[in-house]
Amino acid sequence: MLVSAKEMLQKAKAGHYAVGQFNINNLEWTKSVLQTAQELESPVILGVSEGAGKYMCGFKTVSAMVKAMIEELNITVPVALHLDHGTYEGCYKCIEAGFSSIMFDGSHYPIDENVAKTQELVKVCAEKGLSLEAEVGSIGGEEDGVVGMGECADPEECKAIADLGVDMLAAGIGNIHGKYPANWPGLSFETLAAVQEKTGEMPLVLHGGTGIPDEMIKKAINLGVAKINVNTECQLSFADATRKYIEAGKDQQGKGYDPRKLLAPGAEAIKVTVKEKMELFGSVGKAFK
Ligand code: 13P
Questions:
Q1: Known catalytic residues?
Q2: Mean pLDDT per 10-residue interval, the chain, length 289 residues
Q3: Is 84 in the pocket of ligand 1 (CB under 6 A)?
Q4: Is 273 close to ligand 1, i.e. is its CB under 6 Å away?
Q5: Separation of CA 16 and ligand 1 centre (Å)
Q6: CA 96 to centroid of ligand 1, rounded, Å
Q7: For residues 220 and 226, what is the distance between their CA atoms, to the nearest angstrom?
Q8: Cβ(233) to ligand 1 under 6 A?
Q9: What pLDDT shows up at residue 148?
Q10: pLDDT of residue 142
Q11: Which of 288, 189, 279 is nearest to 230 (CA)?
Q12: Which site in 81, 158, 240, 285 is 20 to 30 Å from 28, CA atoms measured?
């Protein structure tokens, strides 16, 4: 069932667990995530970055594929189709394409402009029944070998954005997209606690879910995180399983080159990763509660 992420996140927040956002890249990815969510009776959010949307032939293609797959596979758990790190223009494209949730990442704008654009999108999303995620404080990452530690959000700025009526807020707390460097100092729980204090019941979003130690994830959920984004970890699992299949020469045996066989170990590996994350986040069995 395609739904906005609003209700599932409010329930997660109240129940002290988090819903996973798993980024999708193609049909196999989407199928693996949906089937795992259904098997575990977990709500789920399918994340689509603008780059992945382009790769999959545009947001309309993605929306049509996800809706058809939900029907054909009899997926009855709540599923949100969510734009990840959307630009202002990208948000409107996804609203038009039939997404059920969007993230407007205005974190690189001066705070006044972030507020103004987010405020406009709050209104549009409310009219159309979509949920909206906003961002304050950037998420770090690696660029040309230079590792940024991620900028911690200003709790007052978080309050200004939360008060606009967004459904979820991504606040930078030292989290980073991709693999974490060995010298990463860890999440700033002081920032997280301060943001939550200022934003009340707002479900908080933790980006960069790949590679965060389990204990930190649990603590973050305790402090108010209700949505956790995972992308790289599924890519690593997929690549690892695919490499093993080819290195074992299985693509050379019988019809092992058939894409349905060649991509199967990777698709199964994604399922294992998604299952592990859903168990860690505590969303298993929560779909119909
Ligand atoms: P990772 O790729 O580090 O898992 O981050 C995913 C993410 O935050 C998508 O917005």
A1: 84
A2: 97 98 98 98 97 97 98 98 96 98 92 95 98 88 54 93 97 91 91 96 96 97 97 97 98 98 98 98 97
A3: yes
A4: no
A5: 21
A6: 25
A7: 9
A8: yes
A9: 54
A10: 54
A11: 279
A12: 285
